[in-house]
Amino acid sequence: MYTEKKLAENIKVFVMFAFVPLLAFLTVKVIPFAIGVTMTFTDWNGVASSFQFKGFENYIAAFRDAEFWHSMLFTVRYVVCSVVLTNVIAFALALLVSSGVKGQNAFRLGFFTPNLIGGIILGFIWQFIFSRVLVYVGKEAAWDLFANSWLAQPDKAFWALVIVGVWQTSGYMMLIYIAGLTGIPGSLLEAAGLDGASKWQQLIRIKIPLMVPAFTISLFLTLQKSFMVYDTNLSLTQGGPYRSTELIAMHVYNEAFLYQRYGSGQAKAVILFIIVALIAVIQVRAMKRLEVRS
Amino acid sequence: MRRKKSLKQTGLFALACILAVVYMFPFVLIVLNSFKSRLNVVANPLGLPKSFSFDNYSGAFKTMSFGTAVVNSLTVTVVSIVLIIVFSSMLAYFLVRWNWKINNFILLMMVCAMIIPFQALMIPFVSIYGKLGVLNSKWALSYFYLGFGLSMATFMYHGFIKGVPLELEEAARIDGASKYRVFWKVVFPLLMPITTTIAILDVLWIWNDFLLPSLILTDKDARTLPLSTFYFFGQYTSDYGSAMAALVLSIVPIIVFYLLMQKHVIKGVMDGAVK
């Protein structure tokens, strides 16, 4: 630890090491956030120089908006499905590519590839697949499931979004699970094997309990990511057909920039923040308790 | 026993191969179709191209100003990451090495701020910075990335610097080096592993980011690669061959990066998650 005796020295150290980053932090995150929260209690349109306080009007408007509830429920459904599927598949992939299978490094590289590419591009690729390739397959093979584009039907467009999300993120979470698996001491598994524990028992009794930290991280990341999905939503379905597949991030964007309702748009964004923060706190607490127990 | 084991290995290998084909198939499809004419794509999107013509590519390359977009993306990504690394490492060093009462509070604030979704900031962001007239500037965008990327990088550096023994610095300080020099000459080189991790994670984020640049860079010439792909695809959706060529083009740079840096990327993501 360093301590400076003179005030001037203290100021010098602060300016040298901390001033620019703290300024960036304040101007990019803290101030916009503070203004954003203020905006929700006023009728400010973001440009006018004067505004009036409106109390909770923006929040009430947000809660009364049926589209908002629809989008919120749609998002929750999306989050549940994609978090579960992503983690199950990622964990299975991790087990597969650390089982000593031939060429496992190449497989790891391959499964991770979709993560390198932006959601906008991935969404466009799948838009082509869903609206062209699968429809072609459906027609040629007389396969009713694909006879019409999934993107034109709300319930199937939902699964299209889930499939793309899972395909994109499972490789990333796979790496987190691999890191967790390699952290398990081999001697422990060997001892269990000598005691006659089957591979399945080793998985359930040793590997999974010891990997709780990896599950915590992966669940945290998938929850946050899937709540915030915007790019693939925009390029895959554009929220359509008829705004039926608008995830909450896109709903907030449209409310503000398409319909120019800044106040209620920002109120919805703050509600989103509160939900995400609550989930994060609850989830990390619950997982910490699990970690201690095992 | 051995026979059973090798049979199981073959089975696992086959399973991995099938999954790999499933994961890679979308990319194969767009490459295949990028060489076809519109009619051929419509007639059979699964068929092989009849001839290898690069017309789609040269058309897409020009219309989406591929060169400009790549240069823009490179500039923004490199400048932002240099800013993030320089300033987060210095801030983290300050937070660890100087025992100010406020330091723990600063770190806590930064960790809390990581959870704020971009959607909660973007509306005020556009109104404040739109008014200040800094839109369309790549440098302003890089500064914003510094602000957004700072919290996580500082947090990661903080954990790492705590483990750097103070004795290493004391020797240099006795020799009369300034605090600034001690940091850059003695401490920073030791941070290399975590610096690589941060750089990798930030490349994947900034290179592919869409929403922030779409709000800041409204000018056509300022567009980054995801933006120019987005506008190109929107305009040429039904010209499938060209649209696929544009997608392939926009994927190529990051794939080249991946092939060159594969070990670092995989390791970076694993290390980044653990911290």
Automatic annotation (TrEMBL), chain A:
Residues 72-283 form the ABC transmembrane type-1 domain. Signal peptide: none annotated. It is a multi-pass membrane protein. It holds the Pfam family BPD_transp_1. The chain crosses the membrane at residues 12-35, 76-97, 109-137, 157-179, 208-227, 269-287. Keywords: Cell membrane, Membrane, Transmembrane, Transmembrane helix, Transport. SUPFAM superfamilies: MetI-like (SSF161098). It is found in: Cell membrane. Belongs to the binding-protein-dependent transport system permease family. This is ABC transporter permease.
